[in-house]
Backbone:
């Protein structure tokens, strides 16, 4: 169980304080798949990062399985089973895909078969990628899928994915959605996915719309999706006209 | 031969040698010969006019390895050695050199080696050189290797040099001249720390038509150490050359990287890239999310970079 209690994150700007996260409270039960969605700059990534320890909140508490982890560093949280797939993963000169998966799994002797399974689940062929360096020779979509494979290899109890679909082609995206669906069905992990994709949103047990650093709406995909659609159309007069015409 | 634990450890570090090497070898210890073996195809003889050895590899020698490690265990010892390699035609051989210094005293221990290779037509040479220094003494450990390679038509050399920690001062000079269709690939790995200094001066001359040269240099400078790289590629005919220098800078270190390319022919294609930067914060964070501590993450990034 993940619990956020009155979480806030404010930064000082010239002339005053700016609230990036404003008094957010939330519980996510074991094995649930929750999607954070909402407008850019609304605080989704900051919220997700504060759970991993990549951002230190200015107020509030984070509890993981009852333990207060607010003061713990990234490494300690990782060791408690929290993992995080970056939206823009870094590249490493000299580290191969196999090295990264081995590090992620924590198993020095991670077999080629296991690596192959993780890569297949993100639509990559192990033979083509295992010995390649995770450097600038890989495309953005490839690095992104390797990032997701590293989270699969980690086998954490809480998996956070920041816009896993970004930069990934349609075919690989379909494979990825299946992988999330299978992970969720297996029930071994709690998942938080930041996404704007209807296909991913529709997999969720709960969808949370984050905007202006607050939880704006919460509900099932069936409840939230029509609202998102209405909000999007509402913002643009041209689209509204087209929608009216249909 | 290899009587002490220090000797054995040094040899393992610089030449991956455990026990007696297979094939041709010459072990130089504290300016003396500590063991030598020639084979049917590789002959090793002492020079008569100056310190050093001649290594002659007969035409058509394939799949053989020659080890010529140097170890210094006495403080205050300084030597200048000349090793000449005469590689025949159509050979395919591995040469493993390397120098280990264990300095337990207060005086400087120093090895200056001049290696000259004459590589015959269509021969392939893989040349590995590892430098390693250790010891509790305050005396400095100095190595100044000079390597000169002449590649005849269709010949190639893959030169790999590694110096990770331990050597207080090094000045490396490398010069390779490539004949028609010849290829030189130089991979350099260097890590300095403390107050160490390292300089690497390299010149690759692509003389013959269709010759190729490639330099891949990766270095890490920590603490207050300083490094200077000066790789130069000269194209005198239709050739292809690529120089790539990447350095990670840490602490209060200083790195100067000055790649230079010179074309003396319209058909010469030469490229250089050089980058110096610190370890990226997002790399550390990513590895920490995989459960590594900051120190482990840093170590992992450096090990990968220098692998």
Residues:
């Amino acid at each position: 169980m993940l619990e956020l209690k009155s979480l806030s994150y404010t930064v000082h700007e010239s002339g005053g304080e700016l609230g990036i996260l404003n008094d957010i409270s939330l519980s996510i039960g074991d094995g649930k798949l929750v999607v954070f969605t909402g407008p850019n700059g609304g605080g989704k990534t900051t919220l997700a990062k504060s759970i991993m320890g990549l951002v230190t909140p200015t107020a509030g508490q984070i509890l993981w399985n009852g333990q207060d982890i607010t003061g713990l560093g990234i490494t300690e949280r990782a060791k408690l089973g929290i993992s995080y797939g970056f939206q823009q993963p870094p590249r490493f000169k000299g580290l191969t895909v196999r090295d990264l998966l081995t590090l992620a799994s924590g198993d020095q002797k991670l077999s080629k078969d296991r690596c192959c399974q993780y890569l297949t689940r993100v639509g990559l062929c192990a033979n083509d990628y295992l010995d390649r360096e995770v450097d600038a020779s890989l495309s953005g979509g490839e690095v992104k899928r390797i990032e997701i494979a590293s989270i699969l290899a980690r086998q954490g109890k809480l998996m956070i994915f920041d816009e896993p679909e970004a930069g990934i082609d349609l075919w690989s995206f379909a494979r990825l959605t299946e992988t999330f669906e299978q992970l969720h069905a297996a029930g071994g992990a709690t998942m938080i996915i930041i996404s704007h994709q209807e296909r991913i949103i529709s997999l969720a047990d709960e969808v949370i719309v984050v905007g202006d650093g607050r939880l704006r709406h919460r509900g099932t995909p069936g409840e939230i999706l029509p609202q998102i659609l209405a909000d999007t159309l509402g913002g643009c007069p041209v689209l509204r006209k087209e929608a009216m015409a249909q | 031969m290899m009587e002490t634990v220090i000797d054995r450890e040094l040899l393992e570090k610089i030449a991956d040698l455990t026990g007696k090497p297979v094939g041709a070898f010459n072990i130089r210890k504290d300016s003396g010969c500590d063991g030598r073996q020639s084979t049917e195809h590789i002959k090793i003889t002492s020079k008569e006019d100056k310190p050093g050895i001649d290594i002659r590899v007969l035409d058509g020698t394939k799949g053989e390895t020659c080890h010529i490690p140097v170890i210094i265990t006495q403080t205050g010892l300084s030597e200048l050695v000349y090793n000449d390699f005469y590689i025949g035609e159509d050979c395919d051989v591995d040469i493993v050199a390397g120098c280990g210094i264990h300095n337990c005293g207060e005086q400087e221990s120093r090895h200056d080696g001049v290696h000259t290779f004459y590589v015959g037509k269509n021969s392939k040479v893989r040349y590995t050189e590892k430098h390693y220094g250790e010891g509790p003494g305050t005396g400095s450990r100095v190595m100044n290797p000079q390597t000169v390679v002449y590649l005849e038509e269709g010949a190639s050399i893959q030169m790999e040099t590694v110096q990770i920690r331990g050597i207080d001062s090094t000045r490396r000079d490398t010069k390779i001249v490539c004949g028609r269709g010849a290829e030189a690939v130089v991979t350099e790995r260097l890590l300095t720390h403390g107050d160490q200094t390292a300089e690497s001066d390299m010149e690759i001359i692509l003389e013959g038509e269709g010759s190729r040269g490639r330099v891949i240099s990766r270095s890490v400078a920590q603490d207050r150490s300083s490094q200077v790289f000066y790789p130069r590629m000269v194209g005198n005919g239709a050739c292809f050359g690529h120089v790539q220098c990447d350095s990670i800078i840490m602490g209060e270190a200083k790195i100067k990287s000055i790649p230079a390319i010179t074309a003396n022919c319209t058909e010469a294609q030469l490229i250089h890239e050089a980058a110096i930067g610190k370890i990226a914060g997002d790399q550390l964070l990513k590895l920490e999310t995989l459960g590594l501590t900051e120190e482990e993450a840093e170590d992992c990034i450096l090990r990968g970079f220098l692998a």
Observations:
- Chain B has one domain: 5-279.
- Chain B has a mean pLDDT of 92.
